Amino acid sequence: MPDEKRSYRSAAWFAKTDKDGFVHRSWMRNQGLPDHVFDGRPVIGICNTWSELTPCNAHFRQVAERVKRGVWEAGGLPLEFPVMSLGETNIRPTAMLFRNLVSMDVEESIRANPIDGVVLLCGCDKTTPSLVMGAASCNVPVLVVSGGPMLNGKYRGQDIGSGTAVWHFEEELKAGTLSAPDFMDAEACMSRSAGHCMTMGTASTMACMVEALGLGMPHNAAIPAVDSRRYVLAHMAGRRIVEMVRDDLRIAQVLTRQAFENAIVVNGAVGGSTNAVIHLLAIAGRVGLKVTLDDWDRLGRNVPTLVDLMPSGRFLMEDFYYAGGLPAVIRALDQRKLIHRDALTVNGKTIWENCQAAPNWNSEVIRPLEKPLVEHGGIALLRGNLAPDGAVLKPSAASPHLMRHRGRAVVFENIEHY
Ligand code: FES
Questions:
Q1: Best CA proximity match to 228, nearest among 62, 50, 46
Q2: Could you say which of 107, 146, 320, 327 is the most buried, measured as most Cβ atoms within 10 Å of its Cβ?
Q3: Are 311 and 168 in contact (CB under 8 A)?
Q4: Residues 81-104: tens digit of each pLDDT
Q5: Environment class of 252 (CB within 10 Å of its CB; exposed 0-12, middle 13-18, buried 19+)
Q6: Which of 88, 146, 310 to mutate to test the pocket of ligand 1 (most atoms within 8 A of CB)?
Q7: Which of 124, 130, 209 for mutating ligand 1's site (highest number of atoms within 8 Å of CB)?
Q8: Which of 248, 257, 262, 414 is nearest to 341 (CA)?
Q9: Fold type of domain 42-151+193-402
């Protein structure tokens, strides 16, 4: 029986000796839970976005099982719960329409239940910001486990990236240089394992943001979904969240201004998605911090893009992991004093302690500072009569000839028209 030094939030449900306590415990026992798990140990919610309609997160039952192993091992009680899952590829009209709805689902699920700390299982684009936003509003101990990227797409001897390749194949189909059967064949070659998009799209970007913010364990961003080390990370996350509850390490202590500034810099270095801008602004708001577009411009504009990943570059997330992953990038950025070393992370160490010895095994994938993919690769803020409140641009992914452009503005009626 764990000898807890203090009582946790869940004690308001499970430690009661009256009728309410009877009700709270009795119904839980129908899952086969014995007496001793109601001894005051940390109750860990595992917030799961598993869904077969969200293919990027379809392997999350297995990930959740590994988190549970770690929670049990550390003397906690794991309780998994579902929230609405947002899959980019199927949800209409757009998953973004429901991001805030899911954040409310997460927030109210945590607030309403006997949960002392929570592990968020995130993968597909909007699942990460929505879960982090909801949990941040509750300010409980939070640890994020990303589901990991798919293995590299392989088609006719070449690596192909999620999304990036689709537009290319469609153009070829229309031009008659790719047959309909070959087009169908390419589908299976692109998405050939569990995991989310393996380009530096929004899902990979947000997984990097989670790690840079200190909400995920080192290497959370890049370990492929099917690599056994992803399950080790999930197991260790289960152990760690129990310690975080015991240490009362809450999400607001991790999500500091320093953490957001680190994330903005890291976004530039990985050539991250512009969607990170709106998501990070929203997450910051949940912990009462004001992070603005101007912060992105000021901190990110001159950051060199070091990670040579599609769509800006050549490689994919699997290569990124083998090259050293995000810790190697953070270590490189520190050479220019771009990282707040003291920012705390969920494993109880500072980001610098986590990354100071990180090796770079492949300088083609993670380029050195002297030879970046793009010299000024961060997010650029634009203002003008088309966007008076500001618009963002990712220079690393823009065609150089369009960086300065004069032309007619065309307004489309809808996505099909476009
Ligand atoms: Fe889910 Fe790209 S469609 S991450």
A1: 62
A2: 146
A3: no
A4: 999 999 999 999 999 999 999 999
A5: middle
A6: 88
A7: 124
A8: 262
A9: Rossmann fold (3.40.50)
